[in-house]
């Protein structure tokens, strides 16, 4: 009985916090006469994950609801109009919670794919990069933070000569980790294509 009561309090608290987050979104959007609707809407979307972090529901603001709202833009505006015209908050709450569930599931899947990719590449670097494995690992770590780079940047990251940095970049291009996107011989830019593909799904 005590465990059930504790669980009920836990669930009620969590639901209440989500209610506050979706109502906050509506209140921000209601500023329309003073702020352009699309600006207010986007501010509200950005504040949702920050609010959930502040309430210790999330450790980091990884719940990107804007993607869900944009993909379902028709439903988004329809549900807003239902609230405005019929004061039907329940319909908006259902729509909002479905978005949280789908977005959270996608975030978990994306993070899992990134972790798998990192483990695979770290293993490949040890096999393929030989004496440059340590520098390659430094570069890989940086690519997961900033997935676009240049030879100059690699030289700085790995604290090595330009020639060695250029050879490392060429090696990582050969193994499909980096991809050159400018088609130029000078001022080349390389992207971590596989990571970007996972992140943009």
Explain what this protein looks like in three dimensions.
- By secondary structure, the chain is mainly alpha-helical.
- The chain has two domains: 2-110; 129-200, Winged helix-like DNA-binding domain superfamily/Winged helix DNA-binding domain (Arc Repressor Mutant, subunit A, Orthogonal Bundle), CATH 1.10.10.
- It has helices spanning 2-29, 37-54, 65-71, 73-86, 89-128, 133-143, 151-158, 162-174, 193-200; strands at 148-149, 179-180, 190-191.
- A three-stranded antiparallel β-sheet has the order 1-3-2.
- The longest helix has 40 residues, at 89-128.
- It is elongated and about 65 Å long.
- The two termini are 44 Å apart.
What would you say about this model in short?
With 201 residues, the chain is mainly α. Helices cover 73% and strands 3% of the residues.
- Unreliable segments (pLDDT under 50, ≥5 consecutive)? 1-17, 31-40
Could you give a short account of the major beta sheet?
3 strands, antiparallel
Number of strands: 3
Give the H and E element order.
HHHHHHEHHEEH
Overall residue-averaged pLDDT value: 78
- Radius of gyration, in Å, reads 23 Å
Number of domains: 2
Strand content: under 5%
Shape: elongated
Structural class: mainly alpha
Question: Looking across the biggest beta sheet, what order are the strands in?
Answer: 1-3-2
The helix tally amounts to: 9
How far apart are the termini? 44 Å
């Amino acid at each position: 009985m005590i465990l059930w009561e504790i669980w009920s309090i836990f669930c009620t608290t969590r639901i209440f916090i989500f209610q506050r987050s979706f109502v906050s979104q509506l209140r921000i959007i209601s500023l329309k006469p003073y702020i352009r609707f699309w600006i207010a809407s986007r501010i509200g979307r950005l504040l949702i994950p920050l609010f959930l972090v502040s309430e210790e529901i999330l450790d980091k603001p990884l719940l990107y609801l804007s993607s869900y709202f944009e993909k379902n833009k028709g439903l988004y505006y329809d549900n807003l109009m239902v609230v405005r015209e019929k004061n039907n908050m329940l319909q908006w709450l259902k729509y909002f919670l479905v978005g949280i569930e789908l977005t959270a599931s996608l975030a978990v899947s994306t993070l899992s794919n990134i972790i798998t990719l990192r483990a695979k590449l770290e293993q490949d670097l040890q096999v393929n990069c030989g004496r440059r494995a340590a520098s390659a690992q430094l570069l890989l770590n940086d690519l997961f933070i900033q997935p676009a780079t240049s030879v100059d940047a690699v030289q700085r990251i790995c604290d090595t000569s330009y020639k060695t940095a250029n050879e490392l970049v060429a090696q990582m291009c050969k193994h499909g980790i980096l991809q050159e996107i400018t088609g130029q011989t000078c001022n080349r830019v390389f992207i971590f294509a596989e990571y970007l593909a996972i992140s943009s799904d």
